[in-house]
Amino acid sequence: MTIYGHLDSPIGPLLLTSDGECLTGLYMGAPSKRPDIRNDWVENPQGGPLPTAMRQLTEYFAGQRQVFDLPLALHGTEFQQRVWQQLTKIPFGETWSYGELAKSLDNPKACRAVGLANGRNPIAVIVPCHRVIGADGSLTGFGGGIARKQWLLAHEGLPVSGSLKLTAA
Length: 169
Description:
This protein is an alpha/beta fold. The protein has helices at 50-61, 78-87, 98-104, 111-119, 146-155; strands at 3-7, 14-18, 23-27, 42-43, 96-97, 132-133. It has a 4-stranded mixed sheet, covered by helices on one side. The model is unreliable at 163-169 (pLDDT under 50).
């Protein structure tokens, strides 16, 4: 069974999902970027790890938390799971390039595959895929949109260029 809840945040509304034991998803942005809420899902923001996840996210957005401590269940291929595990090792306020991430997996030629796995991360922000940038420092792809990525990086004290204005998309 999937339980879910919503959290208003500085980067827009977030949808959090759980299997009752672990956090299974954190989605943002346009409805097309989120899973459809199914009839067998139960809205219960007080269920499982959701209250703790929401509290920790609120602390993060308030500048009071840099590390998350939550039970996570990330469902994907073995390679995706390895990439997502490495993402959790990127410290708050730092960025890695896709190449650096691939090297950390002892597979320096896997930049493209790392990018694809990064883009399929089901627990954004907490598994910090926003901290991965292009080799030239560019803010390449982010499922929540580049403006959200800019906001998150600026929130973590990193210099970003361009507009930080968020849109409804």
